[in-house]
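Form 12-C: Joint structure prediction
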Amino acid sequence: GQQVMQIPQYQHVQEGEDFTTYCNSSTTLSNIQWYKQRPGGHPVFLIQLVKSGEVKKQKRLTFQFGEAKKNSSLHITATQTTDVGTYFCAGDSGGYQKVTFGTGTKLQVIP
Amino acid sequence: SQTIHQWPATLVQPVGSPLSLECTVEGTSNPNLYWYRQAAGRGLQLLFYSVGIGQISSEVPQNLSASRPQDRQFILSSKKLLLSDSGFYLCAWSVRSGSTGELFFGEGSRLTVL
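Section 2 - Result
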């Protein structure tokens, strides 16, 4: 079945440093979504990418979808303590509404 | 506006007891519905998803089952809980369209099996 892996599993950064998490799927995705889950909370949608090679920005966050639509990345510039949480990518590989989540990257920001 | 309700929020159950978690969505029609489980400090495991009443796709059969008796109601059940069933259960919905869109999650149900 479809597998979606993320690296790194954990990342500790000093406040102000940059952060990147990478997402790799075993199958081609029709789209990729990114979510953020704060400790004790539920995942909250950040963005969706659909096109091959697509890049989208949300303030300090930059999202990229790979040319082959099998990988994606999330880059945060100048992290802040409010960025703390676990970041998940998620996607479906056939438009069948089955959404598989990546393994997640837990970000800790040291003030 | 659309809302999703999930209950109970927390429960502690003995091994071998039954389970019923309920999720309802308001303010939308014909949603896709999902059940995920998250073990402590881990990722989200897709358990079941449904694109319509009576249509359930199972990803992890084991001892869990799901039902969708009404368009906006999704129920997760077990006849006999195992220790390994402990975790954070999340219900989610999305708009049904040609491609999968944003998932909206409920607040979650934290299950501890003793």
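Section 3 - Comments
Residues 34 and 77 of chain A are 16 Å apart (CA to CA). Chain A touches chain B through 24 residues (CB under 8 Å).
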